[in-house]
Specification:
Blueprint: E1 11-14, E2 17-20, E3 27-33, E4 38-44, H1 47-50, E5 61-63, E6 75-83, E7 98-104, E8 118-124, E9 132-141, H2 164-171, E10 185-188, E11 191-192, E12 198-199, E13 202-205, H3 214-293, H4 321-341, H5 372-375, H6 378-391, H7 402-415
Parallel strand pairs: 3-9
Antiparallel strand pairs: 1-2, 3-4, 5-6, 6-9, 7-8, 10-13, 11-12
Helix pairs in contact: 4-7, 6-7
Length: 419
């Protein structure tokens, strides 16, 4: 039923589709017969015969009885088509008009030049409409009669499949059949080449690919064997390497432990030595401090050995002023007595420290043969004799310990003769 008769140029709008006017519409049917390899193009002007294809999609099957008596019993399948401007139909776009679709590289109706390229292209929908110029059909079922030029002749395949599985599928072969016998052969007739030389007639046969021959099977077995050997070798090498690493790690651990024990022992010895030195220094400081505190006794000279007396140090009480004066008087008297006893030596006489005086008649010894003690002043010799007594200081019990030290000094002064 007509919904609207509004004219849109040369087309009219009907329910069920968009149809052209019957007078000006023509469509070509490109029919292919795969079993024979033949193909035929038929042009149809009658719009009533073409209505069986309208609103059908790609891959739909159509009964071709309406096309004529010669097509009785035939069934066609729609495989594609082109509109009047040359835009192809694309499967998956469910519209009878032309649309612009964003296509990527590898999709149908678009061949990109760069990897990952996308482009918006105009394509035809997958639904058949009257404005198509060519409709591609494939014979699915053969009818009662023969179609001249389509089903009554067989065209040999110039190029056929090369893969073994496709050859088996094409000729319905089993695994026992020899596929090489069924490979597509092409006869090249006798002709002249570019140089003008004659080329004899020959037959060219494509080499069958992915064919499992005994040599191929042997190579596969060898490759698998080598792969197994490689894996076993790598497994053994990994095992030996792991054992070697473990061994080296244990040796390194033992060496580290030995070094650590030696270092700890040496550090312990050093620390013990430092502690003993600290204790000795503290004891010396305590002794020196005790000697300074005791009045009347001098501190030991530099380089002199100090005997550390263990135990508490007794410090005498300081003397009063009256006691100090009386001690000084006693020391002066003792010095005067000692000076009176010592006589001045004669001129030219040798003085022996700690021995008897030299005789007058003895000659003086040579300068080089003189002992070291003879060349020095008697005062220094007397001071040397007095020093050993002060090398080992002892804490006196009373404050009167200062008097003997003072008595020794005047005695040494008076005993020194003039040169």
């Amino acid at each position: 039923a007509v919904v609207s008769t509004q004219s849109t140029g040369r087309h009219f709008f009907f329910i069920g589709g968009f149809f052209p006017s019957p007078a000006s519409h023509t469509m070509k049917l490109n029919i292919a017969n795969p079993p024979t390899g033949a193909q035929k193009l038929i042009e149809i002007d009658d719009e009533r015969k073409l209505r069986i294809f309208y609103d059908k999609r790609i891959a739909n099957e159509v009964n071709a009885d309406a096309l004529g008596d010669e097509f009785k019993g035939y069934i066609f399948k729609i495989s594609g088509g082109y509109d009047k401007d040359g835009f192809p139909m694309k499967q998956g776009i469910f519209t009878p008009t032309r649309v612009r679709v964003l296509l990527r590289n590898g999709a149908k109706c678009f061949h990109g030049l760069r990897e990952g390229e996308r482009r918006r292209k105009s394509v035809r929908g997958a639904i058949v409409a009257p404005d198509l110029s060519v409709l591609n059909l494939v014979i699915v079922k053969k009818g009662d009669g023969e179609l001249p030029g389509l089903t009554d002749r067989i065209l040999p395949r110039r190029l056929g499949p090369k893969r073994a599985s496709k050859l088996r599928k094409l000729f319905n072969l089993s695994k026992e059949d020899d596929v090489q016998k069924y490979a597509i052969r092409r006869v090249v007739p006798e002709h002249e080449n570019k140089d003008g030389k004659k080329v004899k007639k020959r037959v060219r046969v494509a080499k069958v690919q992915r064919l499992l021959t005994p040599i191929k099977l042997q190579r596969i077995r060898r490759r698998k064997k080598l792969e197994r050997e490689r894996k076993e070798k790598s497994r053994e090498e990994a095992k030996s390497y792991k054992a070697l690493v473990q061994k080296r790690l244990s040796v390194a651990t033992q060496r580290h432990n030995r070094e650590l024990t030696v270092k700890r022992a040496s550090s312990k010895r050093v620390s013990e030595k430092k502690d003993s030195q600290k204790k000795d220094v503290e004891e010396v400081k305590k002794a020196a401090k005790g000697a300074k505190d005791v009045k009347g006794e001098k501190a030991p000279a530099k380089g002199a050995q100090v005997k550390v007396v263990k135990g508490p140090v007794k410090i005498a009480k300081p003397a009063s002023k009256g006691e100090k004066k009386s001690d000084d008087k006693k020391a002066d008297k003792a010095g005067a007595k000692a000076g009176a006893k010592v006589k001045a030596p004669e001129k030219g006489a040798q003085i022996k420290v700690g021995g008897a005086p030299a005789k007058k008649g003895e000659k003086a010894a040579a300068k080089g043969d003189k002992p070291k003690s003879e060349g020095k002043a008697p005062a220094k010799a007397a001071a040397k004799e007095a020093k050993p007594a002060s090398d080992k200081p002892k804490a006196p019990a009373k404050s009167s310990a200062k008097a003997p030290a003072k008595e020794a000094k005047p005695a040494a002064k008076k005993a020194a003769p003039k040169k």
